[in-house]
Prior knowledge:
single chain; 2 helices; 27% strand
Amino acid sequence: MNEVPDEPLVIRVARSGGVAGMTRTGTLELHPQSPTSGQETSWVALAQEALAELRAAKESAAPSQLRDSFMWSLDFDGEKHSVADALLTGPARTLAEHIIGTPRPR
Length: 106
């Protein structure tokens, strides 16, 4: 994430694949040093948890074995992670779905 305290954290998310092969994208800009609201503070914390989770996931670069499944790309200020849909869980999924505005069907 950013080392310069006054710089915003920019998170870019793309979800591609599926039966239609369409890509959905979104961007979220957070200001960790001067959050604009309590809600932004919670998103900063969630982003930090998501990044830690993605860094710890050894299989995050593994391609999906499922036909027509989604692949997610998450970019935290240039630190990129690619994750198969089935492996995107917890804070990383919550953040990614929020950014592109598409919750997973339950």
